[in-house]
Amino acid sequence: MEISPETYDAIVKQAIELAYQVIPSILYAILFYFVGRFIIVRVLKGLRKYLNKREDSPSLNEFVYSFTKVVLFIVLFVGVAAIIGIPVTSFLAIFGAAGLAIGLALQGSLSNFAGGLLILAFKPFKVGNVITGQGHTGKVSKIQILYTHLLTFDNKEIIIPNGNLANSDVVNMSTQDTRRVDYTVGVAYGTNIKQAREIILAIFAKDERALKDPEPVVFLNNFGDSSLDLIIRVWTNAENLWPLYFDGMEAINTELGKNGVEIPFPQRVVHQAK
Fold first, then answer.
1. What whole-number distance in Å separates Cα of residue 14 and Cα of residue 30?
2. Who contacts 240 (Cβ-Cβ below 8 Å, separation ≥6)?
3. Could you please report the per-residue DSSP string of 11-57?
4. pLDDT tens sequence across 237-269
5. Structural domains of the chain ordered from first start
6. What is the pLDDT of residues 81-96, one digit of tens each?
7. Stretch 190-194: mean pLDDT, rounded?
8. DSSP string of 75-130?
9. Is the backbone of residue 191 left (phi > 0), alpha (psi -120 to 50) or beta?
10. C-alpha to C-alpha distance for 259 and 194, rounded to whole angstroms
11. For the stretch 197-228, what's the b/e string if a residue is b when 16 or more beta carbons lie within 10 angstroms of its beta carbon?
C-alpha cells in the first residue's frame, strides 16, 4: 500500500508538531529530575548531619532518614511524570490501593510499627534501662521499629513486639538514682520489738550503702499465724539495690540469732479434747 504525498506530508507535519510538544516536556522533566535530585541529596545530607547529633535514638534517626528519603523521591518522580503528561491521579490511585492492601495484610506489624514510633519518640525507656514489661524483667539491649529486645539477668534474650509494650504498663527501674529495699522479717511472739528494731537499725547504720536520708525504718507490720512480722525499709543508690538486699538479709539473720531473737518457722498447735 503506497502512501500519497499529501498523507505523508500530513504525517510529517503531525510528527513535527508532536515533537515540539513532547521534546520540551522531556527536557523540562530531565532538568526537573536532576535539579530535584540535587536538592534532595543536599536536604538528606543536612538531615543526616542533624540526626547524627541526636545519638540517643539511633533507631528512630535511621527511620526518619529512610522515610524522608522515600517520600522526597516519590514526590520527585510524581513531578517528573506530571511534566511529561502522565496523569498524577493514576499514581495516587496505585499508591492508595497498594497502601490499603499492605495495611490489611500487615495489621499486626503496623501495630508494632506504630508502637515502635511511640516508644522511640516519647522514650518511656531507652537502651540500658532495666524494665518490666509483658511479664518479663530485663535490661533493654535494643529498641527497633518493630521489636524491643530485653536481656534477662540469667542471660536470656526476650523479644517483645512494640505494639504490646506501647499499649501496656511498663515499669522502668532505671530512671531514679535511689531505690528502696524492702524486707519482711518474722520474729517469735514474745520478742521485744524495741530490741529487735535496734538490732536491725544498727546493721544498716554500719553499712555505708544505706542512705541516712531517708533513714532506715523498722515497723511492726502484721500479727502472723506464727510470727510478729516486721517490715524494714532502707533507701540506697540504685546500683546497690540487690547487693544491699542480699547482704542485709544475711546480716539480719546473723545478728538476730546472736542476740537470741528467734525467727520462727510456720507451726500449728493442736489441742486434743479430753
1. 24
2. 209
3. HHHHHHHHHHHHHHHHHHHHHHHHHHHHHHHHHHHHHHHHHHH-TT-
4. 999 999 999 999 999 999 999 999 998 877 666
5. 5-105 (1.10.287), 124-172 (2.30.30.60), 178-258 (3.30.70.100)
6. 777 777 666 666 666 6
7. 93
8. HHHHHHHHHHT--HHHHHHHHHHHHHHHHHHTHHHHHHHHHHHHHHHH-SS-TT-E
9. beta
10. 13
11. bebbbebbeeeebbbeeeebebeeeeeeeebb
Q: Collapse the DSSP code of 246 into the 3-class scheme (helix H, G, I; strand E, B; otherwise coil) and give the result.
A: helix
Residue 111 contacts residue 146 (beta carbons within 8 Å): no
How far apart, in whole angstroms, are the C-alpha atoms of residue 250 and residue 244? 10
Q: What is the identity of the amino acid at 28?
A: Y
Apex CA 87: angle with CA 83 and CA 91, to 5°? 105
pTM, 2 dp = 0.60
- Side chain identity, residue 224: G
